[in-house]
Amino acid sequence: MGTRCEGLRDSLSPIAYYEEYSHFRLDCLKIDDNKELSMSANEDLAKERARCDFNVSEITNILDGGIERTKQRKKIESIALSNGKCCDVTPEETLGPKERYENAIRKSCLYTKIVKDQVLTLTGLEVLGSNSSVLRRTADAFFKDISPFLLHLGMFVPTIMGQGTPEQQSYWLPRALDFQIIGTYAQTELGHGTFIRGLETTATYDPDTEEFVIHSPRLTSYKWWAGGLGKTSNYCIVVAQLYTQGKCYGIHPFIVQIRDEDTHMPLPGVRVGEIGPRMGFNTADNGFLGFDHYRIPRNHMLMKNSQVLKDGTYVKVASHSKLTYGTMVFVRVMLVNEVAFNLAKAATIAVRYSAVRRQSEKISGEPEPQIIDYVTQQHKLFVCIATAHALQLSSNWLWKTFSAVLADMRGGNTENLPELHALSSCLKALSTSDSAALIEQCRLACGGHGYMLSSNLPLLYSFVTATRTYEGDYTVLLLQTARFLIKAWEQAESGNPVTPTVSYMEEAVVGNKYKWNGSAEGIIKAAYYVAAGKISSSVTSIRKRMKNGKAFEDAWELTGVQLVAAAEAHCRAVICDVYRKETVRLTANSSPNVKTVMDQLNMLYLSHWALERTGDLLRYTSTTEDDIISCQQRYEELLAAIRPNAVGLVDAFDFPDEILQSTLGAYDGRVYERLMEEALKSPLNAEPVNRSFHQYLKPLMQGKL
Ligand SMILES: CCCCCCCCCCCCCCCCCCCCCC(=O)SCCNC(=O)CCNC(=O)[C@H](O)C(C)(C)COP(=O)(O)OP(=O)(O)OC[C@H]1O[C@@H](n2cnc3c(N)ncnc32)[C@H](O)[C@@H]1OP(=O)(O)O
Ligand SMILES: Cc1cc2nc3c(=O)[nH]c(=O)nc-3n(C[C@H](O)[C@H](O)[C@H](O)COP(=O)(O)OP(=O)(O)OC[C@H]3O[C@@H](n4cnc5c(N)ncnc54)[C@H](O)[C@@H]3O)c2cc1C
């Protein structure tokens, strides 16, 4: 689809037909007065770019984290993209399941080789740390869906880093980072995903042989879902209940070899396969895995946080009981960045398309306007750009918080872990939920063409909607944050100090009502008051239920709806606050127009959420109807102010066409030409008459069936 792919022939894809029937394709392209469809860029998009009043690359640099990081990213992207084999001639979505998987493996190996040979020599291992989002982003030029290697780099390697002893790391990491072995993370089972204390796979220590016996006692204990498990991985992290000296010590991580390193056959005692078609992730060979008394050496238990000695003695090393959950916290932090990136892609596609697409008449007889000129379209799309910024900046902030807590923990201090868990849980929940909803909004904003897989919007949605479930379901994670909030509220009530992200409670517990003012800081404060009001209401409900004889657990359960809403409101206030502060900080030295447009986007986000939550504002603050009316007016003014810069703003996300992979969103705006070009790649267009005509249709129509 991108220019670098023109004329490419993919050895694995069934495209012989394409050459054979090229005359048919050429005929279709000569539909306009016998002229071939235009190869030149769309004029409307060119005009949009000419009217943009700020320096696009300044915003790109802000989003990348500085000019040097932009340069580094572009260097990595250009190495990977100049390879020329990054996309398919036959769209991957038109292939059958086996061909798609094989093609995904081919491309994963190709991309891995480029990273190993060319990118790592440029950046060193740093690329796997702070630059991993660049690797992830560049990978999208290779995969429209998901690489079967995602879990290897996304969870297998991080688990060894986070849960292995230094000796275990020095043994496993070089092999894993060099792709001599490929692994995944098998925690979820058929019977349990959320409640991990209820996992049923067992790892029983046998001191006679100094081995663990891994066993799946029943069907519900089969591992289910792990990405890359079905066909790709030869190793995996298995999370299992540890038994030693007759006692169960709860779940622990083990490195388990599941396939022969040479033949790739499953090892005796291992039952492994792929789980079947799903809504997305169809190139990720998500798998199932069962064990029949399968033995692994003692030192394959990852022993940084707890150990089993040769004689079977269990030794707790870690100072906090939940450190074995560390990989999940890490991935939740990474996911905020991941969904911000995917939302930015969807916004780019929908905004560019809306500048190209003309539909209906605003005034009878006048030319049809670009659909981006409808205020309702602006309402659908500009909040997507603003949310992509909000989540990107929140994710950078969360990453810094995560790194600081990690550094503390290296020195044995786990004091800030509960706050990190509460923050990463709610930010993961809200960012994934918002992004999925807004990507779908982008798809709907593109009308019928948004439904085409070649727009890439359906694939983006199917990928991002899964992030709301995996790595901790939305509701479950918000309830985790609620636990923290209720405890903090009780601390604040009794006059004890609370941690920074809940310091607003100290003022709110006194019972003041907040008086609305429409400034950014005013809206943020109102959002905190709404959160405090919801937390307070939840506390009241729990206490009332307990007073009426309920046990705490029952009272908590019955208050669940309010608790989820309270955690959601808290997280929204945190995002609003961080987004504001980071915008002000990062634009302090920017040119005036960049400052203005970033401020407008930020205000748009704040006003949008104030208007979405008018009921809460009226209930928990002293906001009046007049305040709401003026907020609505401000919101509409912001839509108009942002309109001329909309295309510039999405250009600032700086996605090469190869990464965007969209007929509707390419930089040149040749929307209709690309739609037709992609349609002609459909296998059904391989021949003028399909054989089913002779087999079924003709006999039916001629009464000979
Ligand atoms: C070519 C290469 C190309 C590629 C290139 C790419 C290169 C770059 C790579 C970059 C990659 C980026 C993208 C990655 C994508 C990855 C995809 C991932 C896919 C999906 C993976 C998965 O999907 S994998 C499974 C995740 N599965 C869960 O996510 C289970 C949720 N379920 C729970 O997580 C627990 O079940 C749950 C609810 C906490 C209760 O746990 P529980 O029952 O034990 O605990 P309780 O509720 O009783 O709570 C008791 C007390 O523990 C406290 N606490 C609980 N957790 C705590 C914690 N973590 N830290 C601290 N404290 C914690 C709590 O706050 C209470 O504290 P207190 O008592 O003080 O109130
Ligand atoms: C695409 C994809 C990839 C995945 N990859 C992996 C992987 O690589 N490795 C891996 O180990 N796992 C993986 N998973 C599994 C994933 O982590 C789990 O599906 C997820 O944690 C949710 O658990 P569950 O499926 O058991 O849902 P359930 O817990 O059964 O949830 C079902 C419903 O019950 C509700 N619910 C559950 N518990 C509570 C509660 N305590 N209070 C209130 N409501 C509750 C939920 O909110 C939800 O509405 C993947 C899943 C998907 C979809």
UniProtKB/TrEMBL annotation:
Active site per UniProt: E471
Protein residues bound to FAD: T188, G227
Cofactor(s) needed for function: FAD
This protein's GO CC annotations: peroxisome
Ranges where the Acyl-CoA oxidase C-alpha1 domain occurs: 325-486
Record keywords: FAD, Fatty acid metabolism, Flavoprotein, Lipid metabolism, Oxidoreductase, Peroxisome
Keyword match Flavoprotein: yes
Molecular function terms, GO-annotated: acyl-CoA oxidase activity; FAD binding; fatty acid binding
Chain ranges of the Acyl-coenzyme A oxidase N-terminal domain: 55-182
Main location class: other
Cross-referenced Pfam families: ACOX, ACOX_C_alpha1, Acyl-CoA_ox_N
Subcellular locations according to the entry: Peroxisome
Pathways involved: Lipid metabolism; peroxisomal fatty acid beta-oxidation
One annotated GO biological process: fatty acid beta-oxidation using acyl-CoA oxidase
Domain Acyl-CoA oxidase C-terminal: 521-702
Record family assignment: Belongs to the acyl-CoA oxidase family.
Protein name per its UniProtKB record: Acyl-coenzyme A oxidase
Native source organism of the sequence: Bombyx mandarina
